[in-house]
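Subject: sequence -> structure tokens, single chain

Hey, anyone have a minute? Need the predicted structure for the following. Not urgent.
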Amino acid sequence: MICGYYLYFTSHCIIEAMHVHASDKRLTEAGSAKLFVKGNGDTEVKVRGVLTDKELRIIREFIKDNYKEMYIRWSSMSQNGFYEG
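Reply:
Had a minute. Here:
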């Protein structure tokens, strides 16, 4: 949990390039953010949700610091790689 948000992806997500949802305890897409992850750990926010600028900054920093480990889990479920957009 980062800034009060869970970071996750689901089996429904793996048809797209690597991305992470940031959601509150309800773990629903309503109000959640969606961040696509690039090969260098940078992120592109596709859906902001209800997150503040500060929360997004902290979550993006966390992803940047941990994207390689996150990708190991992602690639075990998906053949789609990092976001290239």
